[in-house]
Amino acid sequence: MSKTEQRQNRGASGHRITRSDLFGRWLARHRFEARDSLVRLLQMPISAVMTLSMLAVALTVPGFLLTLLINFEQLTPGVELKPQLAIYLKPATDAKRIDQISRELLLREDLLSVELISPDTGASDFRQRSELGELLDLFESNPLPAVILLVPRDDDAESLQAMQQSLLTIEEVDTVELDIEWLARLAAILNSFERISLILSFLLGLTVLLVVANTIRTLIGSRLEEVEVSLLMGATSSWVRRPFLYAGFWYGFFGSLIAVVLISLALALVESPLRAMTELYLGAFELQGLGLQGVVSVLGLGSLLGWGGAYLAISRQLEQFEPN
Is residue 102 predicted with pLDDT exceeding 70? Predict the structure, then answer.
């Protein structure tokens, strides 16, 4: 091989474009477009604030509802609960008969435990746990009935209802309450709340998509000549889409960032009344905020919806430039 050919080969290999060079240029271009889109957004403070406010409200409502739903699920205790039957005896039942009923129930094999709460014990507990305990002093005799708490061995619904009806046949029994019923009601309420939250999330997510699409469509209209010239000079559709996609991304990102702040404020406002309500039923309750995972989810979803809205808008515009 001649020296001239060797020099030509060295020159060709020195200018060969590698994959790392292509990736570097691609990354630099995206970095430039992202920064340029952010600068353009900050140059329109009034219109940007209005759009971001709408996006933030649309993202706050489902985020707040779903966060509350996650907290409400704590109302169902994690430990396994056994259904409990509470037998309220008639106030006129004497102590001997109360003790007899309690002993008869202890002999039943379909019960795991039997606990008798006498009227005196009930009155003592009422004085300690309630601020209205002093009202008992207004009565000549103790108005509270004897209560027998039963834990059945079989906890399916049909067996519990059958046992409840059989206990009502005892002459001294006034009422029989199934203490697990409130958990069933709570589960039904939570299921309904979850479905409503998901429907609202879908509708408001669609709202975010359309708001961003309309905003980007307006932005495209202000740069229509730039788009037309770029296409005439041979620019690809991806090249034309890129700045508008980043604009949609920034709208979604900052809208969701504001939504995170609003959700946190809303949770702080409802924390005190929620704690007071839940402590009446299950004791201590701590309202959980979004957390890191929740914040990342809101930011990611908002950014994705912003990008999707921008993609719809610019794709629709590019279709109009395609030749028939």
Answer: yes
What the block records as the tokens of 179 is 């203490």
Decide: helix, strand or coil at residue 170.
Answer: coil
**Nearest CA to 301 among 245, 231, 234, 249?**
249
32, 97: one domain: no
Q: In what order do the strands lie in the sheet with 85-89?
A: 111-117, 147-152, 85-89, 173-178
CA dihedral 66, 67, 73, 78 (to 10 degrees): 140
- Kindly report, residue by residue over 135-179, the tens digit of the pLDDT: 666 666 777 788 888 888 887 777 888 888 888 888 888 888 876
The pLDDT of residue 78 is above 50: no
CA 248 to mean position of chain CA atoms? 25
Residue 131 CB neighbours (<10 A):
7
Q: pLDDT tens for residues 115-135?
A: 888 877 877 776 776 666 566
Same domain, 213 and 64: yes
Answer yes or no: are the C-beta atoms of 305 and 245 closer than 8 Å.
no
pLDDT of res. 260: 92
Q: Which residues of 218-248 are buried (b: 16+ CB within 10 A; e: fewer)?
A: ebbeeeeeebeeebeeeeeeeebbbbbbbbb
Domain that holds residue 126: 85-179
**DSSP label at residue 137:** G
Rg (CA), the chain: 35
pLDDT for residue 324:
41
Looking at the fold, whether 37 and 105 belong to one and the same domain comes out as no
**111 and 60 inside one domain:** no
- Residue 259: count of CB within 10 angstroms of its CB: 27
Q: When comparing pLDDT for 271 and 300, which is higher?
A: 300
Give 260-292 as a DSSP string: HHHHHHHHHHHHHHHHHHHHHHHS-------HH
Residue tagged 């469509």 (tokens):
217
Contact 175, 165 (CB under 8 A): no
CB 305 within 8 Å of CB 235? no
